[in-house]
Design brief:
It is a single chain. With 104 residues, this protein is α+β, with helices and mostly antiparallel strands. It has a single domain (2-103), classed as Hypothetical protein apc22750. Chain B (Translation Initiation Factor IF3, 2-Layer Sandwich). 36% of the residues lie in helices and 41% in strands. It has two helices and four strands, in the order E-E-H-H-E-E. The chain has a four-stranded mixed beta sheet. It is elongated, with a radius of gyration of 17 Å. The two termini are 13 Å apart.
């Protein structure tokens, strides 16, 4: 499956537009990661626990979006975007969406 954040895929023609596809996940913070993040806030540096959390959330949202596109018979997703939002204190949603298409 081809996934791009552009409206076209260079070298390919969009034969059919299947429609909007999306995937999301809601993740909560982990107490151990919060403690480590608290120390990093004092000392500075990357909050690796949160980086890993968001990387996994992004991967899962993309997988869910791809699954939806495959159910529609698409072989690509164009114009992919990501957004996040706070759901409750300590939990956030990562949402991925795009347009499922069939490429020639």
């Amino acid at each position: 499956m081809v996934i791009v954040n552009t409206e076209i895929v260079p070298g390919h023609t969009i034969r059919e537009v299947k429609g909007l596809v999306q995937g999301n996940t809601i993740r909560a913070k982990h107490v151990g990661r919060d403690i480590a993040a608290g120390f990093k806030n004092l000392l500075g540096g990357e909050l690796r626990g949160y980086t890993e959390l968001l990387t996994e959330a992004r991967r899962q949202a993309i997988e869910r979006m791809m699954s939806q596109a495959q159910e529609l018979g698409a072989n690509a997703i164009v114009n992919v975007r990501f957004t996040t939002s706070a759901v409750t204190q300590g939990a956030a949603e990562l949402y991925a969406y795009g347009t499922a298409v069939v490429l020639e």
